[in-house]
Design brief:
The chain is α+β, with helices and mostly antiparallel strands. It has five helices and eleven strands; from the N terminus they run ββαβααββββαββββα. The strands form four sheets. The protein has a four-stranded antiparallel beta sheet with strand order 8-9-10-11. Strand 4 and strand 5 form a beta hairpin. 40% of the residues are buried.
């Protein structure tokens, strides 16, 4: 999966980009409203605020999904995205909050952006120091319990590809 995800198309296989994968995630969530749950999307202003709070930029595929849903899940996978709740008022929740908390509590390197906490994968991060030609960041499972910045395992070339794989897996 180093070069991207493979998508079945009849008998052949083709590579898809992070943005194509993000659009497929949107379709899967919309087609499976009985299982999937999602928010109402996120405004450009809230996205910019989340990026400023972390001092990091979202890659295109993650930004697209946040714009569409804010936060979403296809159980058991929960994608925190960026969102607010009436109980927490103006406080931003989701990826930006996780990133800031994990920096303070786990020593998360500043170039990592947290996109999920998972029982199996641990802390799922985007490595913003490794943007590809499309502005996408690779996705890693980060284990903070290892000295020297943690142990990492690459799990996808882009967030869109990671999310599509997780969603498909949970719908099968």
């Amino acid at each position: 999966m180093e070069e991207g995800i493979l998508e079945e198309q009849g008998k052949g296989l083709r590579m898809t980009s992070g943005m194509q994968a993000a659009e497929q995630v949107i379709n899967l969530v919309r087609e499976n409203e009985d299982l999937a749950h999602h928010g109402d999307g996120c405004s450009p202003e809230l996205i910019a605020r989340a990026e400023a709070e972390m001092a990091l930029a979202f890659p295109p595929s993650y930004r697209r999904l946040i714009e569409e849903f804010g936060t979403w899940e296809i159980p058991p996978a929960e994608f925190p995205g960026v969102y607010q709740t009436p109980a927490r008022g103006e406080e931003l929740l989701g990826s930006s909050a996780y990133t800031l908390e994990d920096r303070a509590q786990l020593g998360l390197p500043h170039h990592f952006l947290v996109v999920m906490h998972d029982d199996v994968l641990g802390v799922v991060v985007l490595d913003t120091s490794r943007a590809d030609q499309d502005g996408e960041y690779p996705v890693f499972a980060w284990n903070p319990g290892v000295p020297e910045g943690g142990l990492m395992e690459k799990i996808a070339d882009s967030f869109g590809e990671f999310a599509l794989n997780e969603c498909r897996q949970n719908l099968s």
